[in-house]
Structures are given as C-alpha cells and as structure tokens.
Amino acid sequence: MSLPQGSAAQKVRSGQNLDGPIEVNTDVWMDNTRRGTPYLLEETRLLPEWDQVLSLLWFEEDSEGSDDIVDDMDDDGRLKELDGILPWPSKRRRR
Question: If 11 and its partner were Cys, which of 2, 16, 60, 90 is the partner (CB 3.0–4.6 Å)?
C-alpha cells in the first residue's frame, strides 16, 4: 500500500526523524469516522530490514466527546468472553 501524504509513516519513510507520536488529520488514514475528531495520533517505526513501516493510530481520549462514540461491540465496549464453544460448525458430517 502506498503511504498517505501527510502521515507520520510517509515522513519517516522519506527520511525524517520523528520523536514520539504526532497529530495527523483523521482523513489521512480513514474515509469516514464516527468520532467527529479532526485529528488522530500516529506513532511510526521504520523496519528497514523488511523495507516496511509500522504505524500505530489512536484517538486521544477526551471527556467531552466520549459520550458520542458509537460502538459496534458489547454494551461495555469489550469483546465477548470466550466460552470454549467454537462458533462455526465442525467438518464432521451429520447422518
């Protein structure tokens, strides 16, 4: 994938040295966001042995807008606890 213009990944790949995360416009990485936040934080590491860049993206927590977040997970925002029962059928044939 080509690196988005203006991203920390693109800056590091082009030879700039960044100390810690930087703020980038949300639309650099995402087409549509439900958070309504104009920026996100990006921290990037260059992995020269694989000619790759690893970026970590996150939104800074803010107490004012946190009630507006839409979450597609459980009620409390966490994944369901594993119960040991696999959700897909086995490959054994039923008779």
Answer: 16
